[in-house]
Amino acid sequence: MTDDPTEGLRLQKALAQAGVASRRASEELIAEGRVEVNGRVITEQGTRVDPERDVIRVDGSRIPPPRRHLYLALNKPRGYVSTMDDPEGRRNLTDLLAQSNQRVAQKERLFHVGRLDTDTEGLLLLTNDGDLA
Q1: pLDDT at 131 over 90
Q2: Which of 14, 74, 98, 103 has the fewest CB atoms within 10 Å of its CB?
Q3: Selected catalytic residue, list 95, 117, 119, 131
Q4: Distances from the Cα of 128 to the Cα of 2, 27, 29, 104, 112, angstroms
Q5: What is the pLDDT of residue 104?
């Protein structure tokens, strides 16, 4: 942990980048006292951490160290919804990744950059780099 407001990442951003939860959901985890950094429970929003050096735990489980960024170019065919999960059960980008045997991508929390209509085909970018997305 660092007290310097210009160093490190905000804890909620580190949790989001690790795929634990969205930034807002991570803020709730912090507020509920479910997050520890180096053995200390953190409830203050905006606490800065170094994910490579600090031991961060949520509900007692250590979050993995930072991963490399992944960038995929995907040709979305017609008939697929530009979403990673569709509550209506329509074919989506996750289905396309499963069909293409992108095992690495299936283990990552990916964001799609851009959106195409269901009846449109074309290039979409997928990444785990939230800043890029």
Answers
A1: no
A2: 103
A3: 117
A4: 25, 20, 21, 11, 9
A5: 59
